[in-house]
């Protein structure tokens, strides 16, 4: 069976590669579990001084696998905080080691959420970033409902979260979601260079600086919990079922 997430530790960099190209790197429970294992290990592993997210195909990630969402919603007992994705989101919020992302194509949902938890981000010229949570009748996650407006201001964040607006490479740079845009060819080398530079710095100073820059983890954690409550309620709602069915049937949703 193909390994849908590849992890490698080399030269003090943990590289996490999304590797499910036929589904645009949509993330399943099993993929989240592997990502969570790697991120949790990275925090305590002295061999890791930086984390690099990349993807093996032209898409970065199409976000959460919608079939998994559908199943999580229809399964009565599952709480959002118990799903493997929640471990990943907690790892983002609690991260102290620096994160770098190389966004080579479409980045949807958690693909955007992740960038708000990265320290250095490069996007390919053709990358588009999108958080259609409301289009799926869901809400933002991992404290992104606080982090994105903090970065862009409320109205720009509302365009992205509420209208589901796609952000291209230039806009991603101008609103502070990305450090720069690169050609496909230059993207990975540029991101790898940044990860190598971070990995060569004084590790304690990097961790302390990240902690200082991100502010109070309890505030981020509390926002994430609030989001989880709404997310969990919505996941079981008829609105979400309709949104996902509409995606599967390649038609517009009808929310009545
Ligand atoms: N979950 C499950 N399958 C997904 C998926 C997802 N999030 N995103 C894409 N896929 C699947 C498609 O169903 C399709 O499968 P098929 O070939 O068996 O029909 C395949 O991946 C390719 O997707 P397609 O839509 O044909 O590619 P595209 O290049 O036209 O569009 C996207 C790419 C990412 C813009 C589009 O697939 C999309 O909007 N996906 C949903 C994104 C989403 O809502 N994610 C959840 C965010 S919280």
Task: Provide a concise account of the structure shown.
The protein has 256 residues and is of the alpha/beta class. It has helices spanning 29-44, 66-74, 84-94, 110-115, 144-152, 154-161, 169-174, 184-200, 203-214, 217-235, 238-248; strands spanning 5-10, 13-18, 50-55, 99-103, 107-108, 120-124, 128-130, 167-168, 180-182.
Structural topology:
Elements: E1 5-10, E2 13-18, H1 29-44, E3 50-55, H2 66-74, H3 84-94, E4 99-103, E5 107-108, H4 110-115, E6 120-124, E7 128-130, H5 144-152, H6 154-161, E8 167-168, H7 169-174, E9 180-182, H8 184-200, H9 203-214, H10 217-235, H11 238-248
Parallel strand pairs: 2-3, 3-4, 4-6, 5-7, 6-9
Antiparallel strand pairs: 1-2, 7-8
Helix pairs in contact: 1-3, 5-6
Bound molecules: coenzyme A.
Structure in words:
- With 256 residues, this protein is α/β, with parallel strands linked by helices.
- It has a single domain, classed as Alpha-Beta Complex (2-enoyl-CoA Hydratase, Chain A, domain 1), CATH 3.90.226.
- It is built from eleven helices and nine strands.
- A six-stranded mixed sheet has the order 1-2-3-4-6-9, with helices on both faces. The protein has a three-stranded mixed sheet with strand order 5-7-8.
- The longest helix has 19 residues.
- The structure holds coenzyme A.
- The site of coenzyme A has 16 residues, from helix 2.
- Coenzyme A binds next to helix 2.
């Amino acid at each position: 069976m193909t390994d849908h997430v590849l992890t490698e530790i080399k030269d003090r960099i943990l590289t996490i590669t999304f590797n499910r190209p036929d589904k645009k790197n949509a993330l399943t429970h099993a993929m989240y579990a592997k990502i969570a294992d790697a991120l949790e290990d990275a925090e305590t592993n002295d061999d890791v001084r930086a984390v690099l997210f990349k993807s093996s195909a032209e898409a970065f990630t199409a976000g959460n696998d919608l079939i998994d969402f559908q199943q999580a919603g229809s399964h009565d007992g599952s709480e959002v905080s118990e799903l493997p994705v929640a471990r990943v989101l907690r790892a983002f919020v609690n991260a102290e080691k620096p994160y770098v992302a190389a966004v080579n194509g479409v980045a949807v949902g958690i693909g955007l959420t992740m960038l708000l938890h990265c320290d250095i981000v490069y996007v390919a010229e053709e990358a588009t970033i999108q958080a259609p949570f409301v289009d799926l009748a869901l809400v933002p996650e991992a404290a992104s409902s606080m982090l994105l407006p903090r970065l862009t201001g409320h109205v720009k964040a509302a365009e992205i979260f509420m209208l589901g607006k796609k952000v291209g490479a230039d806009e991603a740079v101008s609103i502070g979601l990305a450090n720069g845009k690169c050609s496909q060819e230059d993207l990975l080398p540029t991101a790898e260079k940044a990860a190598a530079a971070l990995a060569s710095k004084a590790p304690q100073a990097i961790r302390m600086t990240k902690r200082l820059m991100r502010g109070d983890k309890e505030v981020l954690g509390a926002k994430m919990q609030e989001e989880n409550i709404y997310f969990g309620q919505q996941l079981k709602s008829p609105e979400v079922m309709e949104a996902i069915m509409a995606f599967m049937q390649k038609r517009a949703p009808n929310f009545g």
